[in-house]
Design brief:
The protein has about 55 residues and is an all-alpha fold. It has 3 helices and no strands.
């Protein structure tokens, strides 16, 4: 069974991916995560951010 990354690490990875300096694939590879997992986490984070914005 694969263990989930701690919340702090997930936030850091999302923050790095959002900077746009490197591709999602490169960020995922750098942190040892699957690109599809990171893409999903980015969608969830975007949705959560919109819930709090207004």
């Amino acid at each position: 069974m694969v263990e989930a990354y701690p919340g702090e690490l997930r936030r850091d990875v999302i923050m790095v991916a959002r900077t746009g300096e490197t591709s999602v694939r490169q960020v995922a590879n750098g942190f040892g995560a699957a690109e599809s997992c990171l893409t999903r986490r980015l969608r969830i984070a975007d949705r959560d951010d919109r819930q709090w914005c207004c």
